[in-house]
Amino acid sequence: MTLLRTGCALIALVVATPALAQTPSADELATLVRAQAAEIAALKARLDRLEGAQQIAAMPAPATPGTVATTSASAPAPVQVAQQTRRPQVTAPFAPQLVPPGPAERDVGRAREANDAGVTTEWGAGLPVFHSADGVYTFKPRGRILTDVSSSFGSRYDDRNITTTGMRALRLGLEGGVGTHFFYQFESDFSENEVDVVTAFIGWRNRIAPGLDYDVRAGHLFNDRAFEGSTGSDSTPFMERSTVSTAIIPQRGFYGLGIMPRLFWKTGHASLTITGDRVDGNQAVSDSRTLLGRVHWNPIKTDRGVLHLGLWGFDESLSSAATTLTRNTVIGGRFNGALRVSSGPLTGGTGTTGYGAELGGYAGPVWIMGEAGRRNARLDGGRPDFVSKAWSLSGGWFITGDLPPYNPRLGSFGQPRVLDPLFEGGPGAIELTARYENLDYTDLLTGGEGWAATVGVNWYLNSFTRIQVNAIHWNTDNRSGAFIGPDDGETVSARVAVTF
What we know:
Layout: H1 2-21, H2 26-58, E1 68-69, E2 79-80, H3 103-117, E3 120-123, E4 128-131, E5 137-153, E6 163-178, E7 182-189, E8 196-209, E9 212-222, H4 243-247, E10 255-265, E11 268-275, E12 289-301, E13 305-317, E14 328-330, E15 340-342, E16 349-363, E17 366-379, E18 386-398, E19 406-407, E20 412-413, E21 429-440, E22 449-462, E23 465-478, E24 485-499
Antiparallel strand pairs: 1-2, 3-4, 4-5, 5-6, 5-24, 6-7, 7-8, 8-9, 9-10, 10-11, 11-12, 12-13, 13-16, 14-15, 16-17, 17-18, 18-21, 19-20, 21-22, 22-23, 23-24
Helix pairs in contact: 1-2
């Protein structure tokens, strides 16, 4: 290319020689020199374009969907390029600098800039994960959309026989990390047409010894309590958690603002959480204080099976603004506000203590889990405790042969690994589920009781998209409220869920 540029300059001088022989005036000579300089600059610009085109032609073709394009040896990880196809290049019959680059050239230019910067991207559950060139920074958007419809019938109370729709979750957030130790996560939920901060924390993780890790998280934290209570709303095998998770719970609910250290080993984990109120609590008085701990152990753990044992408990001292302990707990579906088991009015609470146990596991595509819990709510004035009791037994079978989405690190369910996704021509994963659950508030004179039996089917189109259907037969016997006495009926619910 250097020789070509030199030749072009010599040609320009040869062309200019006759004109110089005519002894032009100073003004004509200056004009001629400017014209020749412009021509030489144009020639150089064309050569630069040609060099760029040759470099682009020498680059490897962009990867087709599902392939991985390698980066330089100094890059921390390969770049995974998805949904990108190579467009044919069209050679124009005129000077390249007169025509803007076409779509193919623009795409390759962006790829070159990304490769030069060393930024790598990998596609996971529907959204990309970004890594910096040095591997220090990671970033990933995240969210979930859970859309439900529910219809109840068979009750002797007409006001319970209703059909409703709702967004179980409508979340948007992000997560990331700096280096191998620091990490963070933030999510907001919009499902009630209000902005509600849910998970929001920063954390630090490290290794104590081979097979022994820890992390510490501080911020607005999700409870580590019970098996289904520790499972995210987008990963529960049923459309609503069992009564153990919804009734044997701190007064502040599933979230609290505080700190949670966790310890992980090869066959289990343990956590300890100290929190105050939710992030949107009352700052006019002191927060409630909640101390919560959980441990799980897998005494049997193979590639195709796990035995799960778990224990958990909490104790809370209630704020002066949180002394009302009235409970109205879901029994036959979240989106029927009339279908609840009620404790009746209850005030004067000073604190609560709860505890529970978990026993279950899976073998191949079949899983089973039993849970039980008890909560004692302390009352002022020397009154006896209000005692809540709940238990459940549930199970599932992946008829497509997929393994249950059990997470042995956390002792809970996560997103499944679908063997043959629908979007790749397979059937997806199909799971049949069943559960019996029981709830008892009858320790109070105004307290009710209830039970529910659920059968369901989950169709996982891929690892982050699912369709759920639950059919529930429920029974309640409330002693207070608008629906007193024995009552039973059915609820059929369906959900479309996407997690990314």
